[in-house]
Design brief:
The protein has a single domain, classed as Rossmann fold, CATH 3.40.50.1820. Helix 3 packs across helix 6 and helix 4 crosses helix 6. The longest helix has 18 residues. A hairpin with a 2-residue loop joins strand 1 and strand 2. Helix content is 34%, strand content 21%. It has 8 helices and 10 strands. The chain has 277 residues and is an alpha/beta fold. The strands form 2 sheets. An 8-stranded mixed sheet has the order 1-2-4-3-5-6-9-10, with helices on both faces. A two-stranded antiparallel ribbon has the order 7-8.
Length: 277
């Protein structure tokens, strides 16, 4: 696998991106949307599964994330986030014309991926998402949501903690975990938090009325407390998506690709990739 960093001007930001390319022929491409507080280049192990099958993966760090400029955790609006995703799509379509384009995502990125599939007109050939953010408001007391809606109008750029601990995502005591990586953070601005809540409401309202026929794999750790499995069951049950495959990873946290024993996750992902490739 060949890893190539690049810089771009997107929505007024100096944005950083990473391309993971197979060493041989590129048969298809995929854009990857990272989660809140993380960044695209960390997904090298996931990208390698796709690259082994001739699928290049392109990940852009969103504003306030990774190596892209901006206050940590602050994405000004859903429109700006969609502009970043649109840039990634256009970049792939321009560089690899006539190649199928897939969509990959984790956590908060899963919410943006669902918007892409349900609301935006860009066409995708396949989609994998892990632990997608489905109902962000349900993790908060109604009074907290009331305050958020109020304060986001007054101090929209103000950042607070997501209250997501690394220990909820991966086994932090494992020897292979990189300690204190400065590119990770747990911040989110009030305006972006509110944008995600509104987006989730829009997506949930549309999901049961839109037929999606492309292959979709949703993976989730059985012990996920960030985006609990009960929310996934509530969201995905009875959806009219014929090619949706939901896979629960036993004993895994929010990031089964960073689990103590990730073999089962990678076996599931590899098997699904073999089918879509």
């Amino acid at each position: 696998m060949i890893t190539t960093p690049s810089k771009h001007q997107i929505a007024g930001y100096e944005a950083c991106a990473t391309m993971f390319s197979p060493e041989g022929e590129v048969r298809a491409v995929a854009l990857l949307i990272h989660g809140q507080g993380d960044f695209g280049s960390r997904y090298d192990a996931v990208a390698s599964v796709f690259c082994e099958r001739g699928i290049a993966v392109y990940a852009v760090d969103l504003p306030g994330h990774g190596l892209t400029a901006g206050e940590r955790g602050d994405i000004p609006s859903m429109a700006v986030a969609e502009e970043f995703v649109g840039h990634a799509y256009s970049q792939l379509a321009r560089e690899f014309p006539e190649r199928p384009i897939g969509l990959l995502a984790h956590s908060m990125g899963g919410q943006l991926a669902l918007r892409e599939l349900l609301i935006n007109s860009r066409e995708y050939a396949f989609c994998w998402m892990n632990g997608p953010l489905l109902y962000p408001a349900k993790r908060k007391h109604p009074f907290e949501i009331f305050l958020l809606r109020l304060l986001a109008k007054v101090i929209p750029r103000y950042t607070i903690s997501t209250q997501v601990k690394r220990s909820e995502c991966q086994p932090v005591d494992a020897s292979w975990v990189k300690k204190n990586d400065p590119l990770f953070h747990s911040s989110i601005s009030l305006r972006w938090g509110l944008a995600l809540i509104r987006s989730a409401e829009e997506v949930a309202a549309l999901a049961k009325s839109v037929q999606i026929q492309i292959p979709i794999l949703v993976t989730q750790g059985e012990l996920d407390t960030v985006n609990p499995t009960k929310y996934a069951n509530e969201f995905f049950v009875d959806l009219p998506w014929e090619s949706l495959d939901y896979q629960l990873i036993p004993q895994a946290l929010h990031e089964p690709f960073q689990h103590d024993n990730p073999e089962e996750f990678y076996e599931i992902l590899s098997s699904w990739c073999d089918e879509v490739a």
